[in-house]
Amino acid sequence: MTDYLADIAWSYDNVAVPYAERVVDGADWEVEAFDLLASYVDDGPVLDVGCGPGRTSGLLAARGLDVVGIDLSPGMIEVARRDHPDLDFRVGSMTALDIPDGSVAGVVAWWSIIHLPRDVVPTAFAEFHRVLAPGGVLLLGFHVGEHSTHKTSGYGDHPMNIHVHRWTAATLTPLALTAGFVPDTADVPEDRLLFRKV
Questions:
Q1: What gap in Å lies between CA 107 and CA 139, rounded to an integer?
Q2: Which domain holds residue 33?
Q3: What CATH number has the domain bearing residue 43?
Q4: Other Cβ atoms within 10 Å of 85 Cβ, number
Q5: 150 - beta bridge partners?
Q6: Contact 149, 163 (CB under 8 A)
Q7: Which pLDDT tens digit goes with each residue over 151-172?
Q8: Helix H segments across the chain?
Q9: In the chain, how many domains are there?
Q10: Could you tell me if 170 and 192 are in contact, meaning their C-beta atoms sit under 8 angstroms apart?
Q11: What residues of the chain score a pLDDT lower than 70?
Q12: Which of 73, 92, 108, 146 could, after both became Cys, cross-link 12 (CB 3.0–4.6 A)?
């Protein structure tokens, strides 16, 4: 595991329990995005990459979606399995998904690409494209901006060692297009994007 992946896993292992205690309910602003995704997915599983303690996976499953949650942090996956025992959670990296080609109907990366180095995001997009079936949907959420910060603690002042990279639609969209996606025509807020695999 490269150093940045090890740092992400270690950081979120440290905060898994307090994170789950603090980030509990679905937010009103998420409803429209998840409802839209559910309306697009007719059949097949949806990957929740960077699923953390399973909160987003639970919200997606509540919409009738067959969800597989994947996270780099074993601690987060342990909490996800505890809190959502009926769902499928796996330890893994969005940069090398252990998922067959063309086997999923949707990928949700909900504020999870923000910790990848900027030059690694195209690798993640290529993986998302690989695992999606033709017509599959990619839903991204991200912090808006152009700068990065180094986070050394969080969620109860537990130690962390991660970078938070902010993005704009203008900088993410070309990376998605290069990976083989096309933008969806749905009108979404500036901190999320929707793409399809053609």
A1: 6
A2: 3-197
A3: 3.40.50.150
A4: 9
A5: 163
A6: yes
A7: 999 888 899 999 999 999 999 9
A8: 3-22, 28-40, 55-61, 74-83, 121-131, 169-179
A9: 1
A10: no
A11: 1-2, 24-27
A12: 73
